[in-house]
Amino acid sequence: MTVGRVFPETTRKTERGLLAALLALGVVWNLLLLYRQWPEVFWDLGVYEAAVTAFNQGQSAYQSFEGLYFVYSPYVLFAFASLGTWLPAAFLLLYLAATLLFLRSGIGLPLFLAAIASSVLTVSSIFMTSVGSGNVTIFLHFLAITASFAVFQAPASRARAATFFVTVCLISLIKPYFLSYLVFGVLAERSRRRVAASLLCALSWAVLFGAQALSHPDLFGEFLASLRLQALGSGGGAGQDVGLAPYSVFGEFVGRYPALVLHVLFVAGLATLLFGVWRFSGMAPDPKESRTLLFLTALILVTLLNPRMKVYDYWIVGAASALVFYLLLKRAEWLEQLTWFGLLCAMTLAVFAMWLAGFPYLKYVRVYLLPLLAFTVFLRFALGPIPGRTEAASGLRAAARSGPR
């Protein structure tokens, strides 16, 4: 993905210097967070190892490990257990390979850099905690995003399409909500064949996942009980470990099932609004930039759809929103760009003040402030005049009125 200059009045060297300064601050900030956290890292990998050790010794893998639970289905447990003592090394190799593939994907490096920068803008440890937890989920996201962007770039490639569907099916056995990535297969090529392939992928996953309940009913029951204890706990509200999705917000005011319904309606309504405005506004005349913005917008919505959106999920929301903000802002005149960047700086200062004051809902502010800002910019350029677009539209209308000569 290529990104142009933000301020037309500056030189490319100056602009790169400004971006480099922001990234340098992000790197320093995240290194300080890592230093503070060290050596307490990869704690979720320790849970995997403890669960596998217990299972291989004839004990339950779904017991509590210092308050944490193994929340993966029996087939995933069998795959982990087959690694034995090699499990930590195998996972580290998987994490390294997933990261390298992600950074080479074309969209991975911009997202990675945006995640580093947005951690400074929101004064948060979201991205470092995601990586430092050692949870497999963030690296599954790396693989899913890599496969999705590849099929998005070359929708006619059968090899990329096959890789995409196999990747989504397999990682969805580990985390079922990854099935939502199937939307990229349909967005990349809106055809009956692609819809049929997506349905076949979902059906294959359902058969494999459901087979666990038939072949190992006791283990499957322990898995569901473990997941319930980890996510919902024994108290009320949305649950004790459900992350910061819209579901968790609604769950503070209504019951869990109404909150889940509201969550789905909210994300579906947001998707309808965004893509409806996108389609009828004509705001993306450049096909390449249009597909990049479409991919990032869909990625935000796919992440938000997960009702248990944890820290290793919602880093995507902030990073993708920062990129959307940046790409859209290139369309504005330099004075408007300065205004929006001034608002961004004010937002960062406000978050910093909330952090110092111990604002109780700061966790939600950190997750949703950048998306809200990107959404506001999106509506501004979708519904308001864009430099160059108004003149082009007027020319097209004049040509249409004059007709063929």
Mean pLDDT, to the nearest integer, reads 85
* Unreliable spans: 1-11, 388-405
Overall form: globular
Strands ordered across the widest β-sheet: 1-2
Share of β-strand residues: under 5%
Q: Mind summarizing the main beta sheet? A: 2 strands, antiparallel
Strand and helix order: HHEEHHHHHHHHHHHHHHHH
The count of DSSP E runs of length 2 or more, i.e. the number of strands, is: 2
Termini Cα gap: 41 Å
Share in helix: over 70%
CA-based gyration radius: 23 Å
What's the helix count? 18
Class from secondary-structure proportions? mainly alpha
What does this structure look like?
With 405 residues, the chain is an all-alpha fold. It has a domain at 238-308. The chain contains 18 helices and two strands. It has helices spanning 12-37, 43-56, 74-83, 87-103, 108-121, 126-132, 136-153, 158-174, 182-188, 192-215, 217-231, 246-250, 256-281, 287-305, 311-329, 334-357, 362-383, 389-402; strands at residues 64-65, 68-69. The protein has a two-stranded antiparallel sheet. Strand 1 and strand 2 (68-69) form a beta hairpin. Helix 9 (182-188) packs antiparallel against helix 10 (192-215) and helix 13 (256-281) packs antiparallel against helix 14.
Write a brief caption for the model.
The chain is an all-alpha fold. It has a domain at 238-308.
Map the helices and strands.
Elements: H1 12-37, H2 43-56, E1 64-65, E2 68-69, H3 74-83, H4 87-103, H5 108-121, H6 126-132, H7 136-153, H8 158-174, H9 182-188, H10 192-215, H11 217-231, H12 246-250, H13 256-281, H14 287-305, H15 311-329, H16 334-357, H17 362-383, H18 389-402
Antiparallel strand pairs: 1-2
Helix pairs in contact: 1-5, 4-7, 5-15, 6-15, 7-8, 7-9, 8-10, 9-10, 10-11, 13-14, 14-15, 15-17, 16-17
